[in-house]
Amino acid sequence: MSGTIRLLLADDQALVRGALSALLGLEPDLEVVAEVGAGDEVVPAALEHRPDVALLDVEMPRMDGIEATAALRVALPTTRVLVVTTFGRPGYLRRAMQAGASGFVVKDTPAAQLADAVRRVHAGLRVVDPALAADSLAAGESPLSNREAEVLRASRGGAPVAAVARQLHLSEGTVRNHLSAAIGKTLAANRTEAVRIADDNGWL
Amino acid sequence: MSGTIRLLLADDQALVRGALSALLGLEPDLEVVAEVGAGDEVVPAALEHRPDVALLDVEMPRMDGIEATAALRVALPTTRVLVVTTFGRPGYLRRAMQAGASGFVVKDTPAAQLADAVRRVHAGLRVVDPALAADSLAAGESPLSNREAEVLRASRGGAPVAAVARQLHLSEGTVRNHLSAAIGKTLAANRTEAVRIADDNGWL
DNA sequence: TGAGCCGCCTGACAATTGTCACGCCGGACC
DNA sequence: GGTCCGGCGTGACAATTGTCAGGCGGCTCA
If you average pLDDT over residues A180-186, what whole number do you get? Predict the structure, then answer.
């Protein structure tokens, strides 16, 4: 293990990616060796540059940061993953940890703490925002069944029941029923509200 | 005019704010003199630190970046404003320019270009992503009437007609009618879709 | 094996949403 | 003045959405 920690940065917004690179580059013991803008570029870049720690955003095109975490753990088990995200959704945290992430940081945290988080992750420790961990525990597992989640996902853009039914090869009655169950479980009054709530909790 | 350009940074995400500060701090001719995390802190901080250029995010709590732009132009007309945003919504661009912004940059742009954008704005030039400008021109003004936009805003979270009607002191029939008109104008099939489209275009 | 539970599927019915025709008012134009 | 808009407000009606009762199959557990 050399003196500097090698980093891979993944974020779909080039400006943010570059800014994070500048921020971490100020630390003498950190070195950014690769930057990518999409989830499916993470593993190839990691294989080429062999980073010690990968900072992955959750919201990315083609493959999200959580899938990328899982793929990276398989391809390069020695590289540790620190997930960095805009939204502190309980489900994101739980799923990221299950996928093998070592840490989870929201973009609200002070800039000064990021370098420390990287060092801790590199040292083998787990880094999780305590407040977020509490939320995650409180929210618990998704109460939605597979079909319910699937129907909610298909309804995201406000698609009518008929379209969802065709897409999933179900009768309209079935779709309405799953939707109704999801509305009940999310304590919503609407499909629209149900989608919002499920999304906010990272259940979709 | 001194040798260095004094900057104010406003972004609600502390990590991004700090990272941008690090990025711009690398440039010898730029100096970050103030950082804030909410729109209503922009003017007080600007009055205290007298920046040459203010970088404002659009998405901020309490007061958004566009309102903050307008307020800053009134309070400190010599400070130029560069709006930096996650979403390249045509309406955002138009409204930001009307509010007196000198430039508009989305967070997708390469990090290397940001410092240049700042220098150009400081020099009195306007900085706008050409592709975004074309979109803005194509999308044009909002086709929605005041009431229609108001009803759409109130329907955002998926609130039922009855609730919207109470909130705006209208009959349910009226609310449904405005909603119907909005659905027609946005070429949507739903109120949900109409809200999404209007939001994406920055019409709300 | 059989009872109980759960996820999934479906159609009938009630509630909500979207459409339409209409009336009212104020501003632009002749 | 008169006419022609456009935005706004309203209720009746049609279409969509949400609820409910019930059927089917797989799984667990006694």
Answer: 94
B155 CA → D10 C1’, Å: 20
**Domain total for chain A?**
2
Q: What is the pLDDT of residues B31-48, one digit of tens each?
A: 999 999 999 999 999 999
Distance from CA of B72 to the nearest CA of A (A): 24
Residues B94 and B184 in one domain: no
CA-to-CA dists, residue A6 to A21, A35, A80, A128, B67, angstroms: 12, 12, 11, 21, 42
Q: Separation of CA A102 and C1' C8 in angstroms? A: 37
Minimum Cα–Cα distance from B192: chain A residue: A158
* Same domain as B70, residue B32: yes
- Does any strand C atom come closer than 7 Å to the Cβ of A146? yes
User: Tell me, what's the ipTM?
Assistant: 0.85
Per-residue pLDDT tens digits for A58-90: 999 999 999 999 999 999 999 999 999 998 888
| Cβ-based contacts (< 7 Å) between B 128-167 and strand C | 160-162
Distance separating alpha carbons of residues B199 and A96, to the nearest angstrom: 30
pLDDT computed for residue B139 by the predictor? 66
